[in-house]
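Morning F.,

Quick status update on the modeling queue. The single chain you submitted on Monday has been processed. Sequence for confirmation:
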Amino acid sequence: MPNFKTLDKNTVRKLSKRKQEPLWMLDLRLEALEVYKKTPLPSFGPSLKNLNLEDITFYKSPETAKKNSWEDIPADVKADFDKLGIPQAEKDFLAGVEAQMNSEAIYGSLKEKLKKQGIIFTNIEEGLQKHPEIFQKYFGKLVKPTDNKFSALNGAVWSGGSFLYVPENVTVTLPLQAYFKIGALNLGQFERTLIIAEKGSKVHYVEGCTAPSYLKNMLHAGVVEVFVAEDAQVKYTTIQNWSKNVYNLVTKKSSVEARGKMSWVDANLGSKVTMKYPACYLRGSGAHGEMLSVAYTGSGQVISAGARMVHEAPMTTSKVVSKSLAGSKGVSNYRGEVLVKEGAKNSRAFVECDSLLLTKTAKSNSYPKLVIKEASAQVEHEASASKLEEEKLQYLRSRGLSFLEAKDLIVQGFIEPVLEQLPLEYALEFNQLLQGDLL
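Structure tokens below.
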């Protein structure tokens, strides 16, 4: 099966036909393609001048059909995911797993008990084929092609990703996880994730991202849409470890109804450039949204991350805590917005963005935006940027710690408020990855 390098209507039609999609999906893809052609690159944030979109392969056919047993995966592909600990993680503390290599899912499983409760957790292509009524009701209702150039690109060539549906009053006690890996040169990955949590339900979804290092730049432009019904709770955790030649340009949005709760938890390492601003649209009275993020940037890396909290109803609350570490010549930017619309009476919002500069050549910037149209709203914003203090290092070293041990202890204390929100196994994984970058 050939790869898809030329981005035109013929390519989009071939992709849609290969996936046996209904006509309405093809129409959405073609509309997104037209928007993509007309939309310029973002006018803010990190420079994207070295991202050659003409050199991107937009779809790569899978080398293996999707399997439901880990032992059936080809040895070379399985070895890549074995390194990430998927099989053991699945046995120990996951309720279900979806794994994607390049453009398609290669593995999927869900514990039988959860299937009997009506939970649907599968790759997004199967979601479209087997559950079209649910799918069409929600797909593309939050993230539009007109949001930005890369949401339009995703809308035209999306492939792979997760579909998760949790019925009313069902609680998923263990996390569900998706792994996304780019394993081919010049490949773009455009997965689409759609999560629907019905009234009173509760679920924790974890995504892991990784890619080997190549000489040429690669692109990841995923899209996530999360729908949180009344009294439902969704936590969406990302553990990102892209190689340092990946442009990670994603669009994530959630809609939260009355008394619902949406939590974005982000742990970001790697990538050449990351632009990521998860949003919560708080549409029902008493809805809550939060974003907790930690990021590390090193030489040649730029992370521009933050959140968008939109208060549309009374008594809504939001919380944003951003912790960034910048080492070597890394650049860390916080970019966020809090919008309290007229009528969102007695809403409350809190934003805290802190940066720790580990070297003299590192940089950190903050670009907050607060738009308050309701006099009864209470909005707080705090921001700080500090250096790795020599006095603290010397004090810890005087207590018998080495320089690296002292540095690591300061870093751990700085990022603890975010890491404590991760499941223990993932917090340990992130710490190990971070220590590898800091050494």
